């Protein structure tokens, strides 16, 4: 899959922008704050119908304006798709493919897959379990639409149940029972899918980690889920007393986590910076691979400031993948484009360079 053209209107720091891309490697150059990351985010937006960085749509509108739009032409095999996303304050977001408006935006997820590798991926290790669940969810959602639907239902009943627990009055027992029924039902399905996915994902991740690091150490991760416990239904019902006191649902799929290990020690606590970086990149390369396996579409690869973060060896390994035709279209940002050019020159590839200044393309 590749993107041929992009138009932006009032997206973040871009007032208007029209660009045509190379089908292979595009390098976005420019100083800090120019808009390099924002450009990658616009492409991510069209794929996932949201920003990689800001969860509220309106925050992506150019300051002091009330609407934005992103439009691009995607190509899969012989087919062409014009994807349009429009956000206007106070109105429902519009997402269209070839002028057809989605009634459910979730139907779009996974049709035009994308993988982003960005500096803030470090949050996957450093932050709480929510970050890791989001990563897992967005990966599974891109390959399984039923999963996303189940997740939306689960979160809906979870917030209803929590709202009920927050009321101080003695609450409706039948209502709690109904919410419990749905949470258990959807929660079990979600847990099952997460567990199956991780089983498939882990060896692909390990292969990529070994490739990047030359098998310097062993690494793995474990899926932790309340609903994997033996008497999870009982435990769930028993947690009600605690839930009433704490006024929130304390047991369930919304608590799941993935624990990362290097040589059987916690990556977060004991992993060196280099190990953590390799781990993150291997996770993303595995994400790329598993999406490709399942959909037979090469995702768009968005590499944000990646060369800043990697040592020479790992850059070489990544470049090998580019050379092997492992990837399709790639977008890389770099404040120092000479470096990107030099790296790609080693495999006789000349990327197309776009120089950005203050939300404008100057070359
Ligand atoms: N909604 C917005 N409206 C206007 N400018 C924005 C908005 N969101 C971010 N920006 C601006 O975009 C710039 C950052 O762009 P970014 O793509 O992160 O730069 P870089 O080239 O360093 O990757 C900052 O100057 C920031 O203020
Ligand atoms: Mg940036």
Widest β-sheet, arrangement of strands: 2-1-4-5-6-7
CATH architecture of the largest domain: 3-Layer(aba) Sandwich
Number of strands: 15
CATH class of the largest domain: Alpha Beta
Low-confidence runs? none
The amount of helix comes to 40-55%
* Rg estimate, integer Å: 22 Å
What's the helix and strand layout?
Blueprint: E1 2-11, E2 14-20, E3 25-29, H1 36-48, E4 67-76, E5 79-88, E6 94-97, E7 100-101, E8 114-117, H2 123-126, H3 129-141, H4 145-166, H5 173-213, E9 219-224, H6 232-238, H7 240-246, E10 257-262, E11 265-266, H8 267-270, H9 273-295, E12 300-303, H10 312-323, E13 330-334, H11 337-345, E14 352-357, E15 360-361
Parallel strand pairs: 3-13, 3-14, 8-12, 12-13
Antiparallel strand pairs: 1-2, 1-4, 4-5, 5-6, 6-7, 9-10, 10-11, 14-15
Helix pairs in contact: 4-5, 5-9
Residues 12-13, 30, 32-38, 60-63 line the site of adenosine-5'-diphosphate.
Structure description:
- The structure is a single chain.
- This protein is α/β, with parallel strands linked by helices and 363 residues long.
- It folds into two domains: 1-113 and 300-363, P-loop containing nucleotide triphosphate hydrolases (Rossmann fold), CATH 3.40.50; 127-296, Up-down Bundle (Glutathione S-transferase Yfyf (Class Pi), Chain A, domain 2), CATH 1.20.1050.
- The protein is 43% helix and 23% strand.
- The protein has helices at 36-48, 123-126, 129-141, 145-166, 173-213, 232-238, 240-246, 267-270, 273-295, 312-323, 337-345; strands at 2-11, 14-20, 25-29, 67-76, 79-88, 94-97, 100-101, 114-117, 219-224, 257-262, 265-266, 300-303, 330-334, 352-357, 360-361.
- The strands form three sheets. A six-stranded antiparallel β-sheet has the order 2-1-4-5-6-7, covered by helices on one side.
- A hairpin with a 2-residue loop joins strand 14 (352-357) and strand 15 (360-361).
- It is globular, with a radius of gyration of 22 Å.
- The chain starts with a strand and ends with a strand.
- The mean pLDDT is 94.
- Adenosine-5'-diphosphate is lined by residues 12-13, 30, 32-38, 60-63.
